[in-house]
TrEMBL record:
Protein species of origin: Chloropicon roscoffensis
One Gene Ontology cellular component: mitochondrial inner membrane
Job of this protein: Mitochondrial intermembrane chaperone that participates in the import and insertion of some multi-pass transmembrane proteins into the mitochondrial inner membrane. Also required for the transfer of beta-barrel precursors from the TOM complex to the sorting and assembly machinery (SAM complex) of the outer membrane. Acts as a chaperone-like protein that protects the hydrophobic precursors from aggregation and guide them through the mitochondrial intermembrane space.
Identification of the protein by name: Mitochondrial import inner membrane translocase subunit
Subunit structure: Heterohexamer; composed of 3 copies of TIM8 and 3 copies of TIM13, named soluble 70 kDa complex. Associates with the TIM22 complex, whose core is composed of TIM22.
């Protein structure tokens, strides 16, 4: 039985599959990071939600997001160094 309509079907290489898995994991991680930062910073900075942010809420949110980004970078760099040390 010919399911490919007479054409040969090329399976993705292991490298291509790994690249796709890594890309999907990176996307999932970015989404999770965004959701966590959004939820935690909003809860910490926005005291009474309205149609716009006050300048103090905006400043708080900017600082909160910056702290999460910096902390994530530190943790990521430490994890990479630890992984490289075990190679």
């Amino acid at each position: 039985m010919d399911f490919a309509g007479g054409q040969s079907v090329q399976m993705p290489s292991e490298s291509d599959m790994m690249h796709q898995v890594k890309a999907e994991l990176a996307t999932a991680y970015a989404q999770e990071f965004y959701n966590t930062v959004r939820d935690k910073c909003f809860k910490a900075c926005v005291t009474s939600p309205s149609s716009s942010l006050s300048s103090s809420e905006r400043t708080c949110l900017e600082r909160c997001v910056d702290r999460y980004v910096e902390a994530t970078q530190v943790v990521s760099q430490s994890a990479i160094k630890a992984l490289q040390g075990h190679s």
